[in-house]
Known about the structure:
Helix content: 10-25%
Organism: Echinicola vietnamensis (strain DSM 17526 / LMG 23754 / KMM 6221)
Strand content: 35-45%
Pfam families: DUF2911
Region (Disordered): 22-60
Protein name: DUF2911 domain-containing protein
Oligomer: single chain
Structural class: alpha+beta
Number of strands: 10
Amino acid sequence: MKKFDNLLFVGCVLMASLLSSCGGSGDKEKETAKEEEAQAMEMKEEERASPLQNTSGKIGGKTVSVQYGAPSVNGRQIWGNLESYGEVWRTGANEATFVEFSGDVTVEGEPLPAGKYSLFTVPMEEGDWTVIFNSEWNLEHGHYQYKEENDVLRVKVTPEWMEENQEQLKISVEDPGLVVRWEKLRLPIAIQ
C-alpha cells in the first residue's frame, strides 16, 4: 500500500508540474500573440495609403480633437471626379473622420452640444458646401455606413479655392475653427 501511495504522490506531483508548465506556456503564447498583433497593427498603419492623423487645439477654452485618414492627391483630379459633387464625402479616407468637442460650441452660428461626431461634407461644383456632424462617429467604412437620420447638425460653408496645392488632406484646429485643406480647397468652418 505504501508503494501505491508513493506512486500516487509522484503521479500527482508530475500532473501538477505538467499543468503549471502548460499554464506558463499558454501565458507565453498569449503574450507572443499579443506582441504579434501589435506588430501587425503597426505594419498595417505604416502600409495605409492614407495615414491616420490626429490633431487637437482649443476653441474658446474648449478642446477640439480630430482624427482622420489623410489621402494624397497623387496627380488625381479630386473634386468632381474622385470626390463627386452633390454626394456625401467622409472628409477623409477609410473610416469616418471624427471630431470631439469637450464643451458645447456653435458651428456657423448653430448650437452643437459637447460630444464626439463623425464629420461629413457634401462638395458642390458651385456655391456653398454642406458640412455635417453625425452622431454615429465610429463608422469603420465612412460614408458607406452614413445615415442621414443620425445627423445632429448640417450647416452651409463657403469653400475657398487657393493657388497653392495641398498634396495630403489636412484638417486643422485654427481660426475660424476647423479648416479642411486638400488639393486647391480651403474649407473654413467657423466654430465658437
